[in-house]
Design brief:
α1 crosses α8, α8 runs antiparallel to α10 and α10 crosses α11. It is built from eleven helices and twelve strands. Helix content is 39%, strand content 23%. By secondary structure, the protein is α/β, with parallel strands linked by helices. The strands form three sheets. The protein has a six-stranded mixed sheet with strand order 7-8-9-10-11-12, with helices on both faces. Strands 2-1-5-6 form a four-stranded mixed sheet. It has a two-stranded parallel ribbon with strand order 3-4. A hairpin with a 4-residue loop joins β11 and β12.
């Protein structure tokens, strides 16, 4: 549940980055696509415009076999656009989303089925920054607490934060409500400045989540449960094209594994063994690595992940 938008990614031409190609995107939509490609039954909740870009987003979801029942149409609306450029090897984002459809969702617009049929809800990212959508997401999370596994990835974009105090309070509330919290090292530096990854990991676990995972790029992944099961996992070496969507791909791999292992309650997370957590994180890291071998957010399909892991083990 969250944002869906259009990314415009740069085309490399003679060292310049002045031409762009259009991709369906948005962190939360990327996770939904990743889960669907990993053969998990997936629906997406969002308000969608009826402009050209909105129609493209809906066609894209249909092609990926994402259940559209929780999409809320907005007649006369417009879609969020994001331009992504690479600076010193790091993606930078320029968003155009003031008053866009995916910022205008309200909880009253969501069908009852979302609250009765959801096994796992993933949320976060820029959907928590503008319009009525942040309140809709919060109320949905509160209503599903204890009824569905709640997964939170803040995916922070500091340049888009307007009311820092209010935003930090919302992030803190989401951390307390969530069963699974995934952060990048960049998120961590903003949420818990001055703390090491290990210190922040244990501080966050103490605030309510059953599982906290921190992705640190080339430095690998840290993960811990509320019962003090912890692992540190290296990343996979792949031929890198770009890192756009890598964190979202990791989330999809992580959540797919939790579903596959029937770990979709807070209590189940507390029973994860070290070997199970290692296998879950390794799978998620493989999904993220394969995403980085393609331009844009392009999570792999299940067969590709399984083949990659077989080859990596041989």
């Amino acid at each position: 549940m969250g944002e869906c938008l259009i990314d415009f990614l740069p085309l490399h031409s003679g060292g310049e980055h002045n031409d762009f190609r259009m991709y369906a995107a948005g962190s939360i939509l990327n996770v939904a696509v990743g889960l669907a490609r990993l053969e998990k039954e997936t629906a997406f909740a969002c308000k969608v415009a009826d402009d050209y870009f909105g129609r493209h987003l809906q066609s894209y979801m249909a092609a990926e076999k994402i259940d559209p029942r929780f999409l809320v149409p907005l007649k006369g609306g417009r879609s969020t656009l994001a331009f992504v450029a690479m600076e010193n090897g790091i993606p930078t984002f320029s968003f155009y989303g003031e008053g866009a459809a995916d910022t205008l969702l309200t909880v009253d617009e969501l069908p009852d089925a979302l609250f009765t049929e959801t096994q796992l809800l993933h949320f976060g990212s820029i959907s928590l920054l503008q319009g009525t959508t942040p309140d809709a997401v919060l109320k949905t999370v509160e209503l599903l607490k204890g009824k569905a596994l709640l997964s939170f990835d803040p995916n922070i974009r500091p340049e888009l934060v307007r009311d820092e105090k209010r935003y930090r309070e919302l992030l803190q509330r989401m951390i307390e409500l969530a069963d699974v919290v995934k952060l990048s090292d960049a998120d961590l530096a903003w949420v818990r400045p001055g703390l090491s990854s290990e210190e922040a990991l244990h501080e966050l676990i103490a605030q309510g989540p059953g599982l906290v995972v921190i992705t640190r790029g080339a430095q690998g992944v840290l993960a811990a449960t509320s019962e003090h099961t912890s692992v540190q996992m290296p990343t996979f070496a792949v031929e890198m094209v770009d890192t756009v969507g890598a964190g979202d791909a990791f989330c999809s791999g992580l959540l797919a594994q939790l579903v596959e292992r029937d770990m979709t309650t807070h209590a189940a997370l507390t029973r994860i063994t070290t070997d199970e957590l290692s296998a879950i994180v390794r799978y998620a890291a493989a999904v993220a690595a394969l995403n980085c071998t393609q331009p844009g957010a392009n999570p792999p399909r299940r067969a590709a992940v399984e083949q990659f892991l077989r080859l990596s083990s041989s």
